[in-house]
Design brief:
Layout lengths: L33 H4 L10 H12 L6 H18 L4 H4 L4 H13 L5 H7 L4 H13 L3 E5 L7 E5 L1 H21 L5 H26 L1
Antiparallel strand pairs: 1-2
Helix pairs in contact: 6-7
Length: 211
Amino acid sequence: MTAANGRAASGNRAVGRRDTDDGADDRGGTGRDVRAVGSGAAGQGDDIVAAVVRQWHLVRPDIDTGPMEIIGRINRCAALLQQAEDAPLRRAGLTRPEFDVLGTLRRTGHELTPGELARETFSSGAAVTKRLKQLTDRGLVERRGDDRDRRVAHVRLTDAGRDLVDEVLPEQLSYERTVLSGLDDGGQRTLAALLGELLVQLEGRLGASRS
């Protein structure tokens, strides 16, 4: 288990304090007071990843959990945002990946092939094909064949699709602004810069391996 999936934490909360009857002190050989760590359950002001990390410190004090504390929180935040029932995207009946397809067509301002949409939205071809079918069935996008190569399709927004993007985008941005309101402007800028640096590194490493 890693903290990359915050939901897995609930299955690990049974990890309690290590038995110290053998005469070892309550620091568990880690320099950390095990009594302060407790069972690993999240305390007041703690997030769920902090609880997971404490549990790992109990059972594997030799492991550096630093990466887990970052990647786990990124994944947990992403999962919570995807599951948010009050998000405008959810109210509009759209998933984030579906909106990414619509938004890509809106911001580029021209037709795109499914392959181009896959690259623009960092998705697989199969995933884009599925999303396009759902969006086509809702009348939000339409496809046309290429005049020279019938194997190639071109996708564009319908009027309904464009109107939906223009309606939902300001609402979604306002919602996300509220989500981030717990961070001051400086904190948001710092977080954005750090995530940007990480993204550039990951795109350079993982993107190159997929090309």
